[in-house]
Amino acid sequence: MKAIDELEPKRFELQAQLDAGKTQAERNRLGQFATPPALAADILTYAKTLLPEGEPVRFLDPAIGTGAFYSALLKTFPASRIEKAKGFEIDPHYGRPAARLWADTGLELELADFTRQAAASRFNLLICNPPYVRHHHLANGEKTSLQARTLQACGLKLGGLAGLYCHFLGLSHAWLEKEAVSGWLIPSEFMDVNYGQAVKHYLLEHVTLLHIHRFDPNDVQFADALVSSAVVWFRNAPPPKNHSVWFSFGGRLEAPALSKMIPAKALTHERKWTRFPASGVRQKSDVPTIADFFKIKRGLATGHNGYFILSAEELAERRLPEQCFRSILPSPRYIMTDEIQADAKGNPLIERRLFLLDPAYDEEEIRERFPTLWDYLEEGRAQKLHERYLCSHRARWYSQEDRPAPPIVCTYLGRGDAKSGRPFRFILNHSKATVANVYLAMYPAPVLSRALARDSGLIRRVWEVLNRITPDRLLGEGRVYGGGLHKLEPKELANVPVPDIAELFPKEYLPVGQQEMFEELAAE
């Protein structure tokens, strides 16, 4: 057997050659992102600390690729301790060269789809970087079959939005010995999104979750994949009572930048696991959230912004009727201020003035009354816009969703390291402009509506409170992607706590059931 110090450089060179033999689009579609050697070594070194000292190693990698984890295994454990090693690789492009490379090392490399294999033997150490294939790349028949096999393997009932990596994790359960250690290098999004609830249930109820290390999203682990990664460690054993899970962030597995033990019981009630370890466990309380004061909707989706949204200059040039358009705010990068004033017509006083096509007329009336607009609609039909999904599902293909002008809008994409220190912006909108889906529209809920009826100036004070929300509080409710890009969905923004808002509301504005709560908060 050749020394691993000789084989690993060959493997690394082979990986680069094989990656170059595929386009970026092909690798993205198949979720093929190779594990960096230093990270593979860090993971296997950490795995060694979780196994009983001296216990023979029976190793499995369900998506072995060229063998980054197997190479690290050979570096970390003496050959005398490795009793068995097996890997699966579905793609011959990587599998055949890898099989030749490791031919004399004792690795059993099978060119096969792991998700369709029956568990013929069991292993006590499973390490995997499964293919990151999003759900929309899985055919409906394939997805249904995967769901059934995963449910049978471990009782994990995955939804239709779950990526292939979730099925890998669930299907591997049948291959694990009792007390086996598993380490998974997977996207951290499962910790926050709805489909991840089933995965989290599995980790808390079916096995003993040991440790989740989340990498700093500004330090992308895979240069060719904008995905925030985590390593999830668990043992194939029922969770003990009063069990706690180690959460860590940044740095290396054994030397993280932040870490904290979180009781597993608390995790069952927490939707956003990426809050840890930066934040502690939230105690159940009646602290108000944004949802108590606002109904939040995503801005409207036009179906084709380039056609439906026109500038003031384009309207004038084409002599299109103003009454068939309404103001719409441009992208946040064109909004230089966090407060938008309006002219006498309600149009926003900003440099980039845009208008949304949204006539309240049937086609016959448009053809008779507005010939220039009729010609414009004909241009849209020539581009087959009326056949697009959104347009074809409207009563009138050229009319828009009901999105009145929101008094406050919030940007939904941002960076934690933004120069302003604010990853998301709350913008006070005095105009009659609606917003597209690059914003979250915030409409007053009944509590706020009643108060505004008596004090219209309250909206400014509420806006000021929103802008005092700390970045950590906002980021803790959202989700994060590789490269440090953060995102807030409507429900996530709605769940952001705003205890300071209590001081703005005299108790008579509030429903009887909330008055005592707000009095207590205002007194704190």
Low-confidence stretches: 511-524
The number of domains: 2
Helix and strand composition category: alpha/beta
Strand content: 15-25%
> For this entry, what is the oligomeric state of its chains?
single chain
Strand order of the largest sheet: 3-2-1-4-5-7-6-8-9
Q: Portion of residues in helices?
A: 25-40%
Number of strands: 20
CATH superfamily of the largest domain: Vaccinia Virus protein VP39
Assign the CATH topology of the largest domain: Rossmann fold
| Count of DSSP-assigned helices | 19
Query: What's the CATH class of the largest domain, please?
Result: Alpha Beta
The biggest beta sheet reads: 9 strands, mixed
Kindly summarize this structure in a few lines.
The chain is α/β, with parallel strands linked by helices.
Question: What does this molecule look like?
Answer:
- The protein is α/β, with parallel strands linked by helices and 524 residues long.
- It has 2 domains: 4-275, Rossmann fold; 285-301 and 402-524, Alpha-Beta Complex (Adenine-n6-DNA-methyltransferase TaqI, Chain A, domain 2).
- The chain contains 19 helices and 20 strands.
- The chain has a 9-stranded mixed sheet, sandwiched between helices.
- A hairpin with a 3-residue loop joins strand 19 and strand 20.
- Helix 6 (140-154) packs parallel to helix 7 (164-171).
- The longest helix is centred in the N-terminal third of the chain and has 17 residues, at 4-20.
- The N and C termini lie far apart (70 Å).
- Residues 511-524 have low confidence and may be disordered.
